[in-house]
Write a structure and sequence with these properties.
The chain is built from 12 helices and 30 strands. It is α+β, with helices and mostly antiparallel strands. Among the domains are: about 120 residues, Immunoglobulins (Immunoglobulin-like, Sandwich), CATH 2.60.40.10; about 160 residues, TIM Barrel (Alpha-Beta Barrel); about 80 residues, Immunoglobulin-like. The strands form 7 sheets. Strands 15-16-17-18-19-20-21 form a 7-stranded parallel beta sheet. Strands 22-24-25-30-27-28 form a 6-stranded antiparallel beta sheet. β7 and β8 form a beta hairpin. α1 packs parallel to α2 and α3 packs parallel to α4. It is globular, with a radius of gyration of 27 Å. The mean pLDDT is about 95.
């Protein structure tokens, strides 16, 4: 299929066959065409040389046109040493993937454009029957939440799974997927990292794509569907375009030293040839994986301010590429971008950037940060949802001390009640979260949010606490409010201090020295009798109050409370660590 030599000596391309994978599929299932082309193609990734497209026409409504892509099949095999490897499994072909969004008969028509010559292909039809699938995730701008095509709210809860060791990539992801599925997590953030899944490598060069990695990405998206996991796919990372911060420019195929067109990283966002090649990559990504409902969001760039870019050059590039991606993605996923040291105000104002993404590390108390004013202020300023894309302790020592995941637990609960689109996304998945089985913190959170329908924007509810050792936060509407309340003496610093003091007392006792007694269990103080006063509710009325155990994911206690002129006083259960709550206004006929 792919040949060399001069263009005039090449054998003309002809369309040999089109095969429909399945003539009957369920709604939101993948429709796949396998197209056999014969003849010579110099570069199957160059749409100026060859473009394959298919138009799908429903019985009613507008047609949808999607692009095809070059595809090399692979298979996973067991090596002689018992490891896993992948190898080619047949000749390369072309594919078209499309996911119908309505039932009924869809008629498709295939055509090929080859160096200005149009080749008409056959027509066919696929029948789409009803299914239980929820469809694609859409950003509901009215409520600032994510919603499936069928209408139910989606609350992202999960973590970064940015990359895996290349030699055990599929096996590693299989293990993480299984563990997250067991804990009912539903959202992950994956990088097209140069050392993991990036398609353009120094071996392929610019404009050609690693088909083995592309096949692995196919496998991961299909397997994540079974695990119930949705993706935020990060397309570029800062280190690939930096010579100082996590520097990896020397391995970037766009670098002049490796045959690319850019002498400096900043030329990637200014050179017309580099921009054309990146647009070509975006088209391949959208063509091959845009069909998948599991792909929930595109992230154009990870921590753009950490790359060697001038902001006056990066911002126009970001606007141009996000507009192009919006144009070619027929399912119009939300698009985001992240920053490290600075706020990306000018980037977040772009109309094609749909969500704000912040990264936060080494906060003394993540709960204080996430329940503070920053998230509501950003939501109000940009009128867009906010997502905490990365958080955690960079210092290995602190992670070793916090083996129970205090900062992880607090960050998950406080970010959601504090106003984030989903739970804060933890980093250190491979050497902290999963080795220490801290993914167990996701299950109680998913139980708490399961079935919640966010039909109105969630805003901060004013709260006054009666005890200085209590941190409280509430978000919701005047009739449905979510609460999270924490014992301030329970944090990583206090836990470390307690363990040090305990070790000191034990050492003194072993030496026979008199040692004052210390509380036998942590934390040293349980807060009892604290109250919360909320304002801004309905003028009067009864509310059902559920207090939740945030470590077991179950209801501790249910009460009925009265609001008086929009104000209600709540008595907090004895507080060793933290509790969550749901406050729901009752109709006149409901008893509780």
């Amino acid at each position: 299929m792919v040949g060399g030599g001069q263009a005039e000596a090449l054998e003309p391309v002809r369309l040999a066959s089109v095969r429909l994978e399945r003539p009957v599929i369920g709604l939101y299932e993948r429709c796949e065409l396998t197209v056999q082309l014969e003849g010579d193609v110099l570069n199957p990734y160059d749409p100026d040389e060859l473009t394959l497209e298919a138009t799908f026409q429903p019985a009613r409504g507008r047609p949808v046109t999607v692009y095809g892509f070059y595809y090399q099949p692979f298979e996973q095999v067991t090596t002689s040493r018992g490891g896993q490897a992948i190898q080619p499994a047949g000749d390369p072909v072309w594919k078209v993937r499309f996911t119908p969004t309505r039932t009924g008969r869809w008629v498709y028509h295939v055509r090929v454009l080859h160096r200005g010559r149009e080749i008409e292909g056959p027509s066919g039809a696929v029948e789409v029957s009803p299914s239980a699938r929820s469809g694609f995730l859409r950003l509901d701008r009215a409520t600032g939440s994510l919603r499936f095509d069928r209408g139910e709210t989606f609350v992202p809860i999960g973590e970064n799974l940015a990359w895996a060791p290349s030699a055990q990539l599929l096996d590693s992801y299989d293990r993480w997927f299984e563990e997250l599925s067991r804990q009912r997590a539903n959202y992950i953030r994956v990088w097209l990292a140069p050392w993991s899944l990036r398609l353009e490598t120094k071996e392929t060069g610019v404009g050609r794509y690693d088909q083995a990695r592309a096949w692995q990405l196919d496998q991961l998206l299909e397997r994540s569907e079974k695990a119930g996991l949705y993706w935020q796919l990060c397309l570029l990372n800062h280190g690939s375009f930096s010579r100082t911060h996590d520097p990896d420019w020397q391995n970037n195929p766009y670098s002049h030293e490796l045959g690319g067109m850019c002498r400096l990283p900043n030329e990637f966002v200014t050179d017309p040839r580099a921009k054309a090649m990146f647009r070509r990559l975006l088209q391949y990504l959208a063509s091959r994986w845009g069909y998948s409902p599991q792909l929930a969001s595109w992230e154009m760039f990870n921590e753009g301010d950490a790359a060697d870019f001038r902001s006056e050059d990066f911002l126009p590039w970001l606007g141009e590429m996000s507009r192009f991606l919006r144009l070619i993605d027929v399912n119009r996923r939300p698009i985001t971008v992240s920053f490290q040291r600075e706020r990306g105000d000018e980037a977040w104002k772009l109309p094609t950037i749909d969500t704000i993404q912040v990264h936060l590390y080494d906060q003394r108390d993540f709960a204080e940060t996430f329940t503070g004013p920053a998230i509501p202020e950003m939501k109000a300023l940009f009128r867009k949802p906010v997502m905490v894309g990365e958080f955690g302790w960079i210092g290995e020592f602190i992670r070793d001390v916090d083996q129970d995941g205090i900062h992880l637990h607090d960050g998950l609960w406080s970010s959601l009640v504090g106003g984030s689109l989903g739970s804060a996304m933890s980093w250190w998945w491979d050497n902290y979260i999963h080795p220490k089985q801290l993914d167990r913190h996701y299950r109680p959170l998913t139980r708490f949010w399961r079935g919640e329908q966010l039909n109105e924007p969630l805003n901060r509810i004013p709260m006054v606490v009666s005890d200085a050792d209590v941190l409280g936060c509430a978000s919701g509407t005047s009739s449905h409010t979510y609460l999270w309340v924490k014992n301030r003496t329970h944090n990583v610093d206090q836990y470390l201090a307690y363990r040090c003091e305990l070790a000191k007392r034990r050492l003194e006792a072993e030496r026979g020295q008199p040692a004052p007694a210390i509380a036998p269990s942590y934390p040293p103080r349980v807060v009892s009798g604290a109250t919360l006063t909320l304002a801004g509710l309905k003028s009067n009325g009864r509310y059902r109050l559920e207090w939740w155990d945030t470590y077991r994911g179950r209801v501790l206690r249910t009460d009925v409370v009265m609001a008086d002129r929009g104000r209600v006083v709540l008595r907090v259960p004895d507080l060793a660590f933290d509790v969550a709550g749901k406050l729901v206004r009752l109709h006149w006929w409901e008893h509780g």
